[in-house]
Design brief:
Elements lengths: L5 E11 L3 H8 L5 H4 L3 E10 L2 E12 L2 E15 L3 E6 L10 E10 L2 E12 L5 H26 L1
Antiparallel strand pairs: 1-7, 2-3, 3-4, 4-5, 5-6, 6-7
């Protein structure tokens, strides 16, 4: 019997004391994510496909004494500099995989910027109230780490 699949959507936003272009530099390349989002354990570039930049990504989350991990290939399918980036699952092994989509939009707000990120994913491994709560908590903690990194690079 197959587990029932559903789509989960998480979103988070933050305000940053920098221009949208500076903030965008942290979110348009998945290789940067392990520096500020511990959920992304590893993100390494792999060969392009159909002209799209791709990364081998390992996601890892701890739930009490247990850790769950997921490996997937993500491609940058949209990149409007300083404004929007979208990453989508892009496996090339011929098998059917659940959908993963991460989108991020930056906008100017006064002398700073605002970021909205949305994660949409399907499948059974990462679904369930407890796992979703852990993911949301990690995303919330990641906001502070990203703001600190931006401040450190501005010094």
């Amino acid at each position: 019997m197959r587990a029932r699949l559903r789509v989960v959507e998480l979103s988070a936003d933050l305000s940053a004391p920098c221009a949208p272009g500076e903030l965008f530099g942290w979110i348009d390349d998945l290789s940067n994510y392990p520096e500020w989002m511990t959920l992304v354990h590893r993100a390494e570039p792999v060969a392009e496909r159909d002209g799209l930049q791709r990364w081998n990504v390992e996601l890892r989350a701890r739930i009490g004494p247990f850790a769950r991990s997921k490996r997937l290939i993500m491609a940058r399918t949209v990149c409007t500099p300083n404004t929007e980036v979208v990453f989508e699952r892009d496996e090339s092994d011929g098998r059917l995989h659940s959908m993963w989509r991460l989108s991020a939009q930056t906008t100017a707000v006064g002398s700073g910027s605002h970021l909205v990120m949305r994660l949409h994913y399907g499948g059974g491994l990462w679904t369930g109230g407890l796992v979703e709560r852990v993911l949301h908590e990690e995303i919330t903690r990641s906001r502070d780490r990203l703001i600190r990194l931006i401040a450190e690079t501005r010094r």
